[in-house]
Amino acid sequence: MITIAVVNQKGGVAKTTTSVNLAVGLASNGYTVLLIDLDPQAHSTLALRIDSDEITAERTVAGLFYERTLADVIVSTIEPNLKLLPGSIHLANAVETLYSVIFREVKLAKALETVVEEFDYVILDCAPNLGVLSINAIVAADKILIPTRLSMYSLDGLNALLNTIEKVKLDPNSYEYRVLLTMVKGYGKERQAAAWKILAPLSDRILTTQIRETEAVEKSQMSEEEELMAVVLQKGSSNRGAQDHRSLVKEVIELWPA
Questions:
Q1: Domains of the chain by range and CATH?
Q2: What is the mean pLDDT of residues 201-215?
Q3: What is the spatial distance between Cα 213 and Cα 192, in angstroms, rounded to a whole number?
């Protein structure tokens, strides 16, 4: 089982869009996938047409901190090979109580040990912070995917994030990480030069796939959309957003085969 944490403490870098489309893409390729929504905004959950307002905190990842099992909280989705551990707005209040739980940083990792034989891939969609749930994701993951925009503002916290990951994981041989450039524009090369300079030391960690800024990807950021929010990889889609995410799925399969 390959466990991939999609993490960046910076918001607006397409973490949820990346997580959902990667999960849907892997599932459509015949892999069994578990998507875990660790964000109280519950956008991954909404993207898969599950009403997060109806989900109590005990039926989210918060339940794992109080001895519920993954089997208690996993739900089916519209994708045959894709299961979901849903998020909920109620998770926001529950998080405040999790800091008092003993061994809280390893709760998710321990829970995932019980489903190793059930899933090929687990995708962890993290909140835009490095709180207790994101730290759980980093501890549990053997692969870490960092979506980031090619801008100085978005890259500003990248080194801090990598330092945090290094401290949490301790053993550098226990994980791999890659950087995914998202919402890439086809212009502004001069303005992007400084950003590429920051990324230069990480050149071997940057995925070949880049997610271009397109109308399809922009729409995927909008919770008001009646279509599947965040799911660019709908059946038959051939727009650039779908092409880029299919490329991402292919690269991840080749890089981190289950």
A1: 2-255 (3.40.50.300)
A2: 85
A3: 15
